Predict the structure.
Amino acid sequence: MEVELWQVHYEAARADYPKIEGHRLIHETVRRIINTLIVDLIEITQHNLIERAPDSLDAVRAAPVLVAHSGTVAAQAATLKRFLFKNLYRHYRVMRMANKARRVIMGLFDAFTEDPRLCLLLPSYQSADADAQPRLIAHYIAGMTDRYAVKEYQRLFIINDN
């Protein structure tokens, strides 16, 4: 599957910087793609706003789509999204990590809701209302860094010989 949006910017980066390679080449290509997407979105949106000239919130709601990419860039972006979804977001290594993350989060949530004494909840994450406590625990877990969540999971579920 050829991804035109990638190919165009990859070749342009190679032409502008013949000695660039590896991560720097990928970074420059991605930078150019993002720039194209943003500039196109701004230009088409400006054009749509000038052409339709909505003068009220109701006019904006009634108008056809005002914020959009051009047809060409929208098609290129859709092709890129399909490619990324298939080859990056659903890559087996990404899926494995997502599964591990899901298990860590679910394990922490189940442990903390079963016995809140297992975690050191700040008062802002505690509630006398039993129905509200799971939501506060979810917020508590959402605020954890990945590294901290993994360490908490290990503290709760992994037996160390040390």
Notes: The chain has a mean pLDDT of 92. Helices lie at 4-16, 22-52, 57-62, 71-89, 92-114, 133-142, 146-157.
